[in-house]
Specification:
- This protein is an all-alpha fold.
- It has one domain.
- α1 packs antiparallel against α4 and α2 runs antiparallel to α3.
- It is elongated, with a radius of gyration of 16 Å.
Length: 127
């Protein structure tokens, strides 16, 4: 298995887990007081896209880089919409929401940068 593919999958899995956690917070399951239906819906959709990409990376391992780039790009786009809603005052504007968005944007960019890197020769595991 390719080490680059493993890193891409690790990013996508981590990102999906954080969006699931954020959706659970905005549904009131993990923490009360931060409920927000639109944020919960958006985070759930982003999590599903990431999980579908993760599954597809196992079904079509030769496409892991492309799939990782696409799903993380879509997640970043959706997250930037969330940032915009915070800025204009439509979305939740709590400190945890702002911190989460800054953090996940950083992680998504890191995942995208990882997915666009060409594989290094020492990344290939011996078969």
């Amino acid at each position: 298995m390719d080490a680059l593919d493993q890193r891409i999958r690790a990013f996508v899995l981590f990102e999906a887990a954080t969006f699931i956690a954020a959706a659970l917070v905005h549904s009131g399951v993990l923490v009360r007081g931060y409920e927000h239906q639109q944020a919960r819906t958006a985070e759930s959709v982003i999590a599903l896209v990431l999980l579908a990409g993760l599954a597809l990376s196992w079904i079509r391992p030769a496409r892991t880089r492309e799939v990782g780039l696409i799903v993380q790009g879509l997640a970043l786009l959706g997250t930037l919409v969330g940032v915009f809603t915070i800025v204009v005052g439509v979305g939740p504007r709590t400190v945890p929401d702002v911190v989460y968005h800054v953090g996940i944007v950083t992680v998504l960019i890191g995942g995208i940068v990882t997915a666009i890197q060409p594989p290094r020769p020492h990344d290939r595991a011996s078969s």
